[in-house]
Design goal:
heterodimer; A: about 190 residues; alpha/beta; Glutaredoxin; five-stranded mixed beta sheet; two-stranded antiparallel ribbon; 5 helices; about 15% strand; disordered N terminus; B: about 160 residues; mainly alpha; Helicase, Ruva Protein, domain 3; 6 helices
């Protein structure tokens, strides 16, 4: 007599459990998609170096374009450090913006010529314009690894105490500049 | 026949050569013991460009430079752990091919085992649940009742 009617609630739960699981999964995936749409790239590595002092570097200059770039050049005022190379296609796409920033002449913009032939770097700058104040050569990625760089271009905002405050991965767009980097620089100056 | 032999040789070579290493002769350390340590460390470090290869396997230029740095640190007398820590300080846990057990990675490490355990429990419950209800022998009273019913099958018994 009691068979079959003993646990009706547990039976119902088992029946709807798969639906609940599917709905939960849909929610998780949907959140991920929305994140990506909002510009949160899940593949992007958040730098562990944020809010830590810039690494110790002492990079030689490009030939006849001295001096090079050392850690002490990144202290005393807010600076930008851009990792680039003549081989880097994406660097070319952000170059006009860097030229504009240099023309405004409001913030020192330093370059690290990453894994590049010095002559190739110089030719590239001669052809496309040279927005940099100081440039250090990094032929063996010593500075790049010290900065936790995964690809070029990357740009760091360093405050006046020589602490890394922001890292931008990939080419800087006008939107990145006006909405994120420029306001941050302004804020760090106060 | 010759072609057949050559084909088998190529096939064998492809089958045997499952892993290739990117370390070039001029990168290697002179001391074989230190070189061996550098290889071991390199196999724990992820190529941050390609992300699914160790720096030991990767031909990316940044991986090459990371191998060089690993060898410099080993030569300078760093322990294996110190070299890994050096990289983690710059790239975060992301650079390790075997993620460390932290609050963030605990699900990654033990989640599969928890799921296996859960699945096992569910299966065990299904197996233990008797599929056929065991039939108990009738009591003498019940037997008598059945007897009475079958004898008088046309009469309905409401009790």
């Amino acid at each position: 007599m009691s068979e079959g009617t003993s646990k009706p609630s547990s039976g119902r739960l088992t029946a709807i459990a798969p639906i609940i699981i599917v709905l939960l999964l849909v929610a998780v995936f949907a959140k991920r998609l929305i994140d990506v749409q909002d510009g949160l790239d899940p593949n992007q590595v958040k730098s562990v170096l944020l809010d830590t002092p810039v690494p110790d570097i002492d990079l030689p200059p490009l030939p006849e374009r001295g001096p090079g770039l050392a850690t002490e050049n990144l202290k005393g005022e807010v600076t930008l450090v851009n990792i680039w190379g003549s081989w880097c296609v994406a660097c070319l796409s952000e170059h006009p913006l860097l030229m504009e920033v240099a023309a405004e002449n409001t913030i020192p913009l330093h370059g690290i010529a990453w894994r590049d032939e010095p002559q190739a770097s110089l030719r590239w700058l001669a052809r496309n314009g040279d927005p940099f104040d100081l440039i250090g050569q990094d032929p063996f990625s010593e500075a790049a690894i010290a900065f936790g760089v995964t690809g070029a271009p990357e740009t760091f905002v360093v405050d006046s105490a020589g602490v890394i405050r922001y890292k931008h991965v990939g080419p800087i767009t006008m939107t990145d500049w006006t909405e994120t980097i420029a306001p941050l620089v302004e804020q760090l100056r106060q | 026949m010759k072609i057949y032999a050559a084909l088998s040789a190529v096939t064998l070579a492809v089958l045997v050569a499952t892993t290739s290493y990117a370390v070039e002769p001029d990168e290697m350390l002179a001391d074989p013991a230190l070189e061996e340590r550098a290889r071991i460390i390199s196999q724990d470090l992820k190529c941050v460009v390609c992300q699914n290869e160790t720096i030991d396997e990767s031909n990316a230029s940044l991986a090459q430079d990371m191998r060089r740095l690993v060898r410099q640190r080993v030569l300078a007398g760093d322990s294996n752990q110190a070299v890994l820590d050096y990289m983690v300080d710059r790239y975060g846990d992301f650079v390790l091919l075997r993620p460390r057990v932290t609050g963030q990675t605990v699900l990654l490490w033990f989640g599969p085992f928890a799921l296996l355990l859960l699945g096992g429990l569910i299966v065990a419950r299904y197996i233990r649940r008797p599929s056929i209800t065991t039939v108990q022998a009738l009591t003498p009273e019940e037997l008598a009742e059945v007897e009475a019913l079958t004898k008088d099958s046309n009469t309905r018994n409401d009790s």
